Structure formats: structure tokens, C-alpha cells
């Protein structure tokens, strides 16, 4: 079993679909374009979700790191979920 650091995890999800949850409970779903050591995040093709409801779509967004609660890879959706 190989242990991975948080830095390794973040490097592996760049360019992949992610969910970023903010401390305000707002979620952004999109492609992780880049991030820095302060957890400032840039997403492409981003969607804004508030309380489980879709609110808006953006081409690119920048999220300030001190607002980030967590970042997780976005699960692939099954056709039944659509």
C-alpha cells in the first residue's frame, strides 16, 4: 500500500471534474484548472449549486482559498441519474 500526500492527490486531479464546497455551503462543480499553496482554485466550465439546486453556469471562476471547505473528485454520473 502506498501512502499519498494531499499534494499528490491535488496534483492528480488537475484537469479533472471536481466539486469544491465552500465554508458557506455553496458548491461549485467544474474542471480543476489550477490551484496554489493557499488553495486558491481556478475552475473551468463551472456550475454553482446552492442547497442542492443548480443556480448558474460560468466559463471560468476563481475561488479564494480561505473560502474552501473541501475539494473532491466528482463522481461519474450514471445515465439513470440524469
TrEMBL record:
Its main location: cytoplasm. Pfam families: LSM. Keywords: Cytoplasm, mRNA processing, mRNA splicing, Nucleus, Ribonucleoprotein, RNA-binding, rRNA processing, Spliceosome, tRNA processing. GO terms for biological process: maturation of SSU-rRNA; mRNA splicing, via spliceosome; tRNA processing. The keyword Cell membrane does not apply. It comes from the Eukaryota. Gene3D superfamilies: 2.30.30.100. GO terms for molecular function: RNA binding. One of its GO terms (cellular component) is U4/U6 x U5 tri-snRNP complex. It is found in: Cytoplasm; Nucleus. CDD domains: LSm6. Residues 5-77 form the Sm domain. SUPFAM superfamilies: Sm-like ribonucleoproteins. Belongs to the snRNP Sm proteins family. SmF/LSm6 subfamily. This is U6 snRNA-associated sm-like protein lsm6. It comes from Anaeramoeba ignava. The lineage of its organism: Eukaryota, Metamonada, Anaeramoebidae, Anaeramoeba.
Amino acid at each position: 500500500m502506498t501512502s499519498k500526500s494531499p499534494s499528490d492527490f491535488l496534483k492528480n486531479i488537475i484537469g479533472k471534474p471536481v466539486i469544491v464546497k465552500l465554508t458557506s455551503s455553496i458548491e461549485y462543480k467544474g474542471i480543476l484548472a489550477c490551484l496554489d499553496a493557499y488553495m486558491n482554485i481556478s475552475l473551468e466550465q463551472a456550475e454553482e449549486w446552492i442547497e442542492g439546486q443548480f443556480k448558474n453556469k460560468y466559463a471560468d471562476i476563481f475561488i479564494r482559498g480561505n473560502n474552501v471547505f473541501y475539494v473532491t473528485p466528482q463522481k461519474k454520473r450514471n445515465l439513470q441519474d440524469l
